[in-house]
Amino acid sequence: MHKKTFWFAFAMATLLVTALSTGQEIYYLFFLLMLAMLVLSAVTVLWTALTLRVDIRGVKPRVTRGEALPLIITAKHACLLPAADVRMVMAMHDAAAGSNTITAFLPPFQKKEFRFVMRCAHRGEYVAGVSHAVISDVFGLIEIKKHIKRKTGKVEVLPRVRQQAELEIQAGDTGPESRSRAAEDASSPSGVRAWQDGDILKRVHWKLTMRKKELLVRTFEESAKPDTLILPDLTPVNALEEQALFIEDCVCEICLGAAQAQLLNNSPVNMPLTAAKPYEINGRSIVDVPRFQSELARVKFDSSYSYEQVLASMLSRMQRTGGAILVTPHLTMRIADAAIRMRQMGMEVSVFWVSDAQREEVLALTGRLRLAGIDAHVVNPWTAEESA
After folding, report:
1. Which residues have C-beta within 8 Å of that of residue 217, sequence separation ≥ 6?
2. Between residues 158 and 224, which one has the greater pLDDT?
3. What class does CATH assign to 1-158?
4. Checking DSSP bridges between strand 348-354 and strand 375-379, what pairing results, if any?
5. Where in the chain is the domain with CATH 2.60.40.10?
6. pTM of the entire predicted model
7. Fold of 227-379
């Protein structure tokens, strides 16, 4: 009950007691007038709530982070009694006070159209539409909330693709596995074929050429491109909620950009997502990029394992890995040491540190990585630009 309603009811009770005590008709008149106002308010609010119809159009299932989603909302009611402006509250995440509410006067039997722009500032899954309507009478005595059923839709806000260079890995460069193949004879042909323009003479199989009376060229099996392992740090971000969302967005967009750069060159990509419910995304060509984008939009930063533990658990799968891309907002000496061990195993390693740390701290960690032959980057989460 609102304060205004409470004091209105208190005044009615006072008038009734006074009328019964004194028998004066004027007090009965004022009491009946106030009672009529209360009944009129209740009838108006209930009638408006029962006949209110809200519809929404323009909800897209997917948008990219940073885009604005325009929504078209129509509303009408059939109450003939005067009602106050109807407030329609939008179902939004982290909306600023007042920015998620549409307040409008709705004449009876007239459909009115409103436009609302939903800002998609962060990746994730959100609900878009009208959550509920707040209806009040012209006196402001009674106010009720009506939930608008089935007038919302799910919107998946996808991370943006951050453009970045490919981690160059040579075919056959598979870290420890390359050493086991070092003694193999790379000159052993796998077959022969007919001569084609552009072939070099030293590949001609002269014995078979003389026997078959046509130029035959040796063919060799090319090693498949090794896997690229992309490891995002999914431990909870220790920051204010809005700051943490920006950092999480930046981590996901770096991972997505790295995956696209590798897949553009048909390099196989494996991305273990070590959240509370761990799973892995695999891709072999550029057509797999939308799947990476969708999964990174939904992943939660709620891993129960530290990033150091995740890196240690991945060492056992390095036999078929030619390169590793580490993306973390928590770069420490232990993480740097793990990256250096990967580099010493023969892999190409790239480290992305999402941070706005001071220059001295940045130089201490990135300098250690670069001296070990690791490609180290520091990305500012607020601007998404490299700061060192």
Report:
1. 192, 193, 194, 195, 196, 199, 203, 204, 205
2. 158
3. mainly beta
4. parallel
5. 1-158
6. 0.76
7. Rossmann fold (3.40.50)
